[in-house]
Amino acid sequence: MKYQTVIGLEVHLQLNTKTKAFCGCAIDFGKTPNSGVCPVCLGFPGTLPVYNKEALNSAIKLALAFSCEIQEHTKFDRKNYFYPDLPKNYQISQFDLPLSRNGYLDIASGGKTKRIGITRVHLEEDAGKLIHETSSSLVDFNRTGVPLLEIVSEPDLSSPQEAFDYLTSLKNIIGYLDVSDCDMEKGSLRCDANISLRPEGAKELGVKTELKNMNSFKGVKDALAFEVSRQTELLEAGQPMTQETRLWDAEKSETVSMRSKEGAKDYRYFPDPDLTVFIIDREMVSRIKTQLPELPREKMQRFMRDYGLSEYDAKILVNSKKDAQFAEDCIQKYPEKDKKIMVNWLIGPLLSEANARKLNLYELNIDKEELINLIGFVENQSISHLSAKLVLTQMIDSQKPAVLLIKENNMLQISDTTALEEIIAGVILENEKSVSSFKAGKTNALMFLVGQVMKKSAGKANPKVVGELIKRRLTDA
Amino acid sequence: MVLNQFTAHELLDKLKNSQATLKDILDSIYARIQEVEPKVKAYARYKSVDRPRLNPQSNGLFFGLPVTVKDNICTEGLNTECCSKILTNFRPPYDATVINKLKAAGSSIFPFKANMDEFAFGSSTENSYFGTTHNPWNLECVPGGSSGGSAAAVAGDEAIWALGSDTGGSIRQPASFCGVVGLKPTYGRVSRFGLIAFASSLDQIGPITKDVEDAAILTRIISGYDPNDSTSANKDIPDYTDSLGKDIRGLKIGIPREYFIEGMDAQVKSVIEEAINKLKSLGAVANQVTLPHTQYAVPVYYIIATAEASSNLARFDGVQYGYRAKSDSLIDMYKKTRAEGFGEEAKRRIILGTFALSHGYYDAYYLRALKVRTLIKNDFDAVFKNFDCIITPTSPTPAFKIGERTQDPLKMYLSDIYTISVNLAGIPAISLPCGFTKNGLPVGLQIMAKPFNEEMLFKIAHAFEQNTEWHKIKPRL
Questions:
Q1: Which overall architecture, per CATH, does domain A417-476 show?
Q2: What ipTM does this complex have?
Q3: How confident is the model over B389-407, as pLDDT tens digits?
Q4: A235-260 tens-digit pLDDT
Q5: Which residues pair with A140 in a beta bridge?
Q6: Nearest in space to B92 (alpha carbons), one of B227, B226, B194
Q7: Which chain A residue has its CA at the smallest distance from B94's CA?
Q8: Considering only CB atoms, which chain B residues are within 8 Å of A45?
């Protein structure tokens, strides 16, 4: 039997606000353990939370970017459970009146665009960190109370690859909004996944498994792929599936059962009486909406429209906000009409340089004017394309201007006909055979002769000009 | 009369006019405490050997006059233990907002905290880890609770004035049992920051004083918006002493028929009726009104209050502060700490509240209780459309014998039958002495007004007080 995979993702995103979600502590992860804390985030008796307006602002911004409906009334709820990294033994979160609902994210997967529903985006507080030592465990509360956004997708994803592409798009958009560092390895973005399989064509969802403990996008993809095969095997063997939570073990590349549904926790959610129900000001929402930056999709379409880019090229350039900005600056500064030339440089040699150095385009630290100069030398045929690529590498490494490097490398092409005529005359004399072949109509012979001239000029002759000169000389005679 | 017997406003006059020094006042208080504290036990940890030095400011509105503070209000560097083993030796690193306000007004904080029922769970101050407080009017009787220490200290002239907290009557009922004045301000009038929470949506800090004028003065100082408490109201604070000495002719008093029912002590009934007649003789107009949802107040209260308490008390887990039981594992440490650290009533309420919030019971209990709470509030709104205030007894009985109700929690819960609706509705109410039973136990008159109309309470209470002698009678200890 064929099975259909159904995946939903739950992303937790640390917001990069100046202060914590419910107290005035500055957020700084570099601090020594338990130095970025106060009685409020430590949950000391008698203290009370006050919500952070900047966090609310970021949350609304992000929800709007995913076209979510912003609720008129929202509230905070308490999620009750005991754990030493949670000083109040409850987490302030949102339960039945989340900040926003019903959004979507369009993802590009397998050459097609697919719309993935976003069920809800809500605000909550982060817990602390446990550090386990051999005979004891320590707790660092610096992270406690950092604002988190929970972004829950609909079960619209149908393969591990789609889940990966969803996370990539999500990260891309969040990068544009500048609300989070979005680094899964540092824990500023965390992702849990729900996955179930059902027979192709079936309407009812299968028994779901919740996956935790993935710490990279690839980890999410691998864990889901593992689950697809594990669950397929179980289903095919006719074994009953149980609803459970499983942990991804990246080293062993497998998931391990953590708890079954019977062991599921009862979080006893109820409205936090310390934080009253509040109304989200509509004017504020419209203000945030007008201040939203151009998002990747819109930017891509504009690049295609304004600069005549192909969808493929545009998509590459809008992958990160700063790269897109860098690329657009270059394109706009490029003085020639045919912007495609600059675009080809950006997604060709520059992108290769960036990839080779594991950097973003903008991080190459290349002077835009110098890049334009370099392209100019190629376009007016002063240097070859090959030489220009070498110069580009050197420019990035040395930060020297293009013209200086070309001189240092002695790369200027000889387009001066008098200088070339002398070499050509010599080559014609020395290669009678080829000359007669050419005259007999064999065009290959011309290539050979050009090659000889190039050799004699130590590669500096402009091959185009050389070809023209040889042709003229031999046909005229 | 000795200094400690005077009211605060009388002492402030003496200090202003140099008829007494702060040292004289403190000496008389300590002398009184030495004399009667072994019998009354109003203070949580009083030991005659150590008399800490006060560092009073000689200026400010209050000339360094000390305030006695209930053990659940945080005082920087001073034990604040909620009279619970689990908070043993907890010294907050911060002052509650009310303490800051008092200090700013030149008040000093009395270095011994007032006894109370553990975490304010109780109506008799029998549930204190530090032992039972005795009623100064009859040492075999309870002082009421949970602010029984504050009320007994003021009644026994061991304190000039005091702060209590009121979640379901914890200021008014002990004030009534001890023959002093106690006010529960409107929810949101006084900051809760630094009050160790019992039930966050019901708790309010308020004054316990020897007369109405003192209550007006103290209420004004502790009131006001606090950016650290999201539930505090951003409203102007009137000078409540302006409400004193006013004519109450034509004021409309509502007498709720649901409060004058079986179970009310006959002597209490006749004392209250006399008090109402007194108010009529001063020109007020009294009519019967109805608060039809009164019968649901006790069950609604015990669901909401215990639900919130179960979550608020989760933080007492032995991890960061207070008592920690010796143990080998985390879960075991949690269990032992809480089993050994909490008293019986605290455990009872935590279990009740945990149950009410549990999956499958939430809708039937907590959610339904919230709905009925709204109906109870609507009852009051309807009456206050046509009436200036509502008058009831504060408690159906005078102070009962120590031990009389400890085996019957339900009967104990019914001691608050007249006070808890006020907390559910969030309205202000005052209790003041209005007579005695044949056995010489004080009876309290409760006046309720609409939200943020404490002025009305002071106006009526002061008019009554100034036309009666009840507040001048002192217990013989």
A1: Orthogonal Bundle (1.10)
A2: 0.95
A3: 999 999 999 999 999 998 8
A4: 999 888 889 999 999 999 999 998 77
A5: A129
A6: B194
A7: A39
A8: 74, 80, 82, 87, 90, 92, 196-197, 315-316, 321
